[in-house]
Design goal:
The protein is mainly α. 55% of the residues lie in helices and 0% in strands. It has a domain at 1-26 and 47-131: Bromodomain-like (Histone Acetyltransferase, Chain A). It is globular.
Length: 165
């Protein structure tokens, strides 16, 4: 039904705008920090570069027909930000804040499933916490692997002056 599809598109657009324009207590738009991310990174985490602009274009062209598809793309924007930055950075922290804000807004707008039912509603803040732990574990193990693979100067114990002839 076209009217239902129109409502879903309106709901997704509203959800995106409220998330993207969300301001902190100082009146700063949280999504502004994402502009620090490169358009294309050397270590790009996905085949497609997921950005707010890409999602906005998809919304404008009415490509999203389901909340879960929209949410998957939006979460990839947040995940990309975390993969390209370190945990103490503003972008990294803002990606977590915005994802939590999105989850709360989504639940309110969908009236916790009574207005719109979707598998997307199963992803909550608890699940986000588990994902963040998994991401940090991956990041830590990658950092450890990189440290082990780097060449470090080692002191040779069998230098000529210590050899016994």
């Amino acid at each position: 039904d076209d009217s239902v599809q129109n409502l879903v598109c309106e709901l997704l657009t509203c959800l995106f705008i409220q998330t993207f324009n969300y301001e902190d207590q100082d009146g700063q738009c949280i999504s502004d920090s994402f502009s620090e991310l490169p358009e294309q990174a050397e270590n790009e985490p996905f085949d497609i570069v997921y950005t707010f602009d890409m999602i906005r274009q998809n919304l404008d062209q009415r490509r999203y027909r389901r909340l879960d598809a929209f949410q998957t793309d939006l979460f990839k924007v947040f995940e990309r930000a975390r993969k390209l930055t370190l945990p103490p950075s503003k972008v990294y922290q803002d990606s977590i804040k915005l994802e939590k804000i999105y989850i709360r807004l989504r639940d309110e707008i969908c009236q916790h499933g009574s207005l719109l039912r979707s598998p997307a509603l199963l992803f909550n803040e608890d699940r986000l916490q588990h994902e963040l732990v998994r991401e940090r574990t991956e990041k830590d193990s990658l950092a450890n692997t990189n440290n082990q693979n780097s060449i470090s100067p080692t002191k040779s114990s069998d230098s000529d002056e210590n050899k016994v002839y």
